[in-house]
Amino acid sequence: MALLAANVLAFIVLFSGSSCTAGEADSCVFLGEKEELSLYEDGDVVIGGLFPLHFSPVSSLLTYKTKPPPNSYNYSRALRWMYTMTFAIKEINKRSDFLSNITLGFHIRDSCDDIPVSLRATLQLVNGNLRDAGSGVSMALLRSLGSFHIPLVSYFASCSCLSSQREFPTFMRTMPSDAFQIRALVQLVRYFGWTWVGLIGVESDYATFAIQLFLQESVHYGVCAAYTHFYPVDLNQQALDELLNVIQTKTSKVIINFSGESEMQGILREVQRRNMTGLQWIASEAWATAKSLWEKSGKLLLGTLGFAIQRADVIPGLHQHLTSLDPLSIHKTAFLTEFWEETFKCRLNDSINTHYHGEDTNHDRKTCKGTEKLDDVYSPYFDVTQLRVSYNVYKAVYLVAHALQDMSNCKDGEGPFQNGSCANPKNFRPWELLHYMKHANFSVLGKEVNFDLNGDPIAYYDLMNWQQMPDGSLSLVKVGFYDASLPSGQNLVINDSMIQWPALQSVCSESCPPGFRVARRKGEPICCYDCIPCAEGEISNATDSLECSPCSEDTWPDAAREACIPKTVEYLSYYDVLGILLCATSVFGACVSLFVVAVFFKYKDTPIVRANNMELSFLLLVFLAICFLVGLLFIGEPSDWLCLIKFPAFGISFALCISCLLAKTSVVLMAFRARLPGSNVMKWFGPKQQRASVLLGTAIQVLVCLSWLLTAPPHANNNTNYHSSTIIIECVTGSEIGFWCVLGYIGFLACMCLAMAFLARKLPDNFNEAKFITFSMLIFFAVWITFIPVYMSTVGKYTVAVHVFAILASSLGLLLCIFAPKCYIILLRPDKNCKKKSMQK
């Protein structure tokens, strides 16, 4: 991670001997108090290291009037990191197949997790080489060492700002850049649906760049920051109150903290004091595996998730190296003396430890008995179950070693430098080693170690979950991983079933279910929105849809507006109750007409049949039967050919009927006019002329229909204008003028027939049909005049039903008014069916 300023393990590659020449010895002088505490072993190439063996949980503000107090808290994990470095160097020196002609040495100092101390230690080291840890310290050291092209390899600095080769050309690291950690964190919170998260961080380059990257990356995943808050390294009560007040007043329950272990301790103490629960902590890799936080936080961190850097399952021989502490090395090395005294809370005889911890001093402690055993106590120094930073240290040493090995393998004339020259592995310039380090590719513990053009390793993180064991202790359980080398969308793998956490949600707005769309709230983050139901005819089949999708023309949303379903198809079907009734009426009317034909044919020689133009009566009955059957053409699913047939059939059949009635009425009227003396009008109304008049009256209707069909024929159409959820299959007229011309011509014939029948209604004849035709015409007009407004105001199958009803009602009116009285006489009163009766006035 890019921790705070001084958290630095720097490999500063130190060369054998001082950087000062013999002639410059008098001028190469260190000013000020010289810090004697260090760990040193000579070699052909000496690698310098800075480790935060001490740190202060509260930074003191410098007054520049007095000497700053020493940092006093021991960091035993850093001691393990330091001795991992010595172990790796000694391991390499023992190998006969690797760097056999070069002996590595080390010179290690305490950075005290502080930039000024780190710079001071660095300047003491750079008579050789160095390694560094945290981001802030790395930047400070690089700006000091960059001018000398001294390579620096960090095991703990993760700030993405350090990837700039233009600004930091001599920097490399075995710690992945925060750019990858941030992508992993954004994908993590998005995976669990936490779109409303709080971002907090210590005032440092690490947290500043990390939060800035998070805000940029989160936009692509629909994750919003409920708040961002930076707190000072000096976490006094005022700073804690400001931070906790922000957390308490905001609605976000998920908090991502970019800080180190020491800052998190202060935050947890205040959280515990305020009894704040129900928070889901997301750890940056700086404290994702810091077990010491668990001991002081109770269950506040239960369920915490965080990405930890890649772990080595085991580094063979490291545990033995860490535990092989003999009394001589403990008394001789101040770092180990302090560790021993702090572990057993006692004081060694002739102790060289000058660091005091807490309120006690070493002078107040009892003397160590000499019987203390490290096997009887727990210390992070011996804990090799989470070799993460230690693994980075191990890889950093091997990076320098492999660069030296590649330099040793160089052949004159084939080298990478001017004129194919090679560098001397025992006397080289810093930039020459840097060249080989930049091109290093090697394996450590069976795993490939590669670097990109920025000097960053390929990122791999373990997703850790803080779980409580039955005895109350902490178990760091790996529940997933992030591998930047995998394709996008597949690089985050999570095993949900292994995770232990408090159940919670952290969203600004609840997710919009299918059937709704997201409506952004003006002036608020994109994660804050309202859910609006999809408009009519539109659906959304996913959660948090930004837009609703319209259904196709033949589909319609279901009740929940989640899916498009086929629209209801509507037409007057033979299976509808209404269709069945109209169909039965049509057939019945046709049968009655044919029955009357049969009756008339059987009694064709009787006066009542012969008295009123028998031939026209038969034609009228047949045409009426056709009119009844035409109604069937309007029932059933419309098609183009059916639409072409039914309108002309309707118009022509009624034109035939009314033309017959008109001819019959004309004959009756003219027959009585012909009785006047000298009248020969009947010669124009003989049988041929009557048939011709019927044909003529119908021919005009045929011409009208032909003109209609040739210009704008009727056709089937799927109508969705009236009911969006229903497809009305209907016959459209094509030409409204054509339809109303057909209907108007029928009305014209009917008007003529009514007028003539009205004139002949009182003529003296017992079998005079004129009055019956008059009644039939009145019914006909009543039906069709009523039809027009009803037809215009209905839609769908009811429009068709109105049309069929008008056809059947008018046909039935003609049939009953004209032929029912005749059938009554023929069948029930045959005594009136005689010539004598027909001649009576």
Please specify the SSE layout and strand pairing.
Layout: E1 10-15, E2 39-41, E3 45-51, E4 54-55, E5 73-74, H1 76-94, E6 104-110, H2 115-125, E7 130-132, H3 135-145, E8 152-154, E9 171-173, H4 178-191, E10 196-202, H5 205-218, E11 224-231, H6 237-249, E12 254-258, H7 261-273, E13 280-283, H8 292-297, E14 305-309, H9 318-323, H10 327-332, H11 334-344, H12 389-408, H13 430-438, E15 442-444, E16 447-449, E17 460-468, E18 474-483, E19 492-494, E20 516-520, E21 529-533, E22 538-539, E23 549-550, E24 555-557, E25 564-566, E26 568-570, H14 577-602, H15 607-610, H16 614-633, H17 640-673, H18 687-711, E27 715-719, E28 726-732, H19 736-759, H20 770-793, H21 797-828, H22 835-839
Parallel strand pairs: 3-6, 7-8, 8-9, 10-11, 10-12, 12-13, 13-14, 26-28
Antiparallel strand pairs: 1-3, 1-7, 1-8, 2-6, 4-5, 14-17, 15-16, 17-18, 18-19, 20-21, 22-23, 24-25, 27-28
Helix pairs in contact: 1-12, 2-3, 4-5, 12-13, 14-16, 14-21, 16-17, 16-21, 17-18, 17-19, 18-19, 19-20, 20-21
Subcellular location: Cell membrane
Domain G-protein coupled receptors family 3 profile: 578-841
GO cellular component, one term: plasma membrane
